[in-house]
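Now for today's protein.

===
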Amino acid sequence: MNFLISSMSQLRGAPVLALCAMVFLSACVAPSGGSIAGGGLRLDGSKTVQVAVLLPLTAVDERVQELALSAEQAARMAMADLKGRVEMQMQIYDTAGLETQAAEMAQLAVQEGAQVIVGPLFAGAANAAGLAVAGSGVSVLSLSNNVEIAGGNVYVLGHTFQNTAEHLAAHAWEQGKSRALLVHANTVPGQAGRDALERALEAQGSFLAGVEGYEFTQQDLVEAMSRVAERNEVVDADIVFLTADYDGGLPLIAQLLPEAGVDPQLVQYAGLAQWDALPSAFHLPAIQGGWFAMPSPLRSEQFNARFQTVYGRAPHPLAAIAYDGVAAVGASVATGSRDAVNRRGLTQSSGFQGAAGIFRLRDDGTVERGLAVATIEGNKVVVLSPAPRSFSNIGF
């Protein structure tokens, strides 16, 4: 399952033949203009770098189509920003939101000379694309945030629970909050968020005083808030972490949990979701004063304003990730290294400047993003800890 668009219900469309019979393509040749080394494809510096962008442009769900179009436009904006700085060309391929077509398009892209792939959007499609071109040494920079597909030649660029949890756990520790109570839904995203927080808190040295799960029904959610309050009377937590977002019951939790006895004046609230996403909920007692992580507000505002100017409409919130994928490839290629599109070049410790702040790819295929920690005060978003501008002084 892909967490990238967990709030939702779940160009080149002509049929193509698979390039190889086996999914892993172990017998396929490298794309033109490169050779395969231990860490992946190496570039031929005399040739223009070819980038393929895989997106579900004709997915059945119209909302996914709209997201894909926004991502495509962001990718084209990144290419415009790179003009004159690098010799790079981009080609768009349509996955239709299907894993089989994602694999076929990845194979076709490599056959047509692609040396690196940005996308697909969904985790399953990204995994299929990565497997389909693994033998060619081509890296796949997926727009997904599902870390379960990361590794090998597949990277995830989306905002991950783990990265957010690490920022929040670090901020909590710095503020003297070290006895945590964790509340999550018994759903795939909820349990993934729980696991990320548990790992982050353990790494930080915080004490996990209690974990409370609930079934994703209104009745059990309501009953669970009483259980959480009763547990807190025993464990005496100084911070409660919530994994829910606004589509996953956060407003109800933010109202009922304080009423059940977990006083925001005594216990700090924090959440994995971006609590600035629904201003109409800012007045809720647990949201007021609560902590959450978010991309650099300044960089995000600049990207959104520029996208609005270029395309006459606001970008989808996730379009910036597509921009980052293309921009990262361009920045790496600009170094002139033959390893620009393989693991050595893509995982440089200095990272990249993206549409929403700095980010860098790790050897295990996951992403680390520089995030701000913010709160809600007087129905406004207030940044408590600004997003870092470089990785020179931070790391998890």
The radius of gyration is 22 Å. Residues 1-29 have pLDDT under 50 and may be disordered. The longest strand covers residues 207-214. DSSP finds ten helices and 17 strands in the chain.
